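Progress report, Aim 2. The chain analyzed during this reporting quarter is listed below.
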Amino acid sequence: MNQSTGGGSVARVTEIAARSEKSFDDAIQIAVQRASQTLRNVSSAWVKEQKVEVSNGRVTAYQVNMLITFVLEG
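Predicted structure tokens for the chain:
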């Protein structure tokens, strides 16, 4: 039987959370930068959930929960 590797790839998904006192965009950047320090071949990120922390009627922090996709080597 002849098996072909066909040039396909396999990816893995991991969930992470990040927090920023500035904005949701900043929290997303923090999450992607941190994931890229640990994981190789990060190829996409999906914001699964957003929430804010509130104190005395004001937003004090922004949090995102994200799914990070990275392609496995080999």
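The longest strand covers residues 42-55. Helices lie at 24-38. These observations will guide the mutagenesis work planned for the next reporting period.
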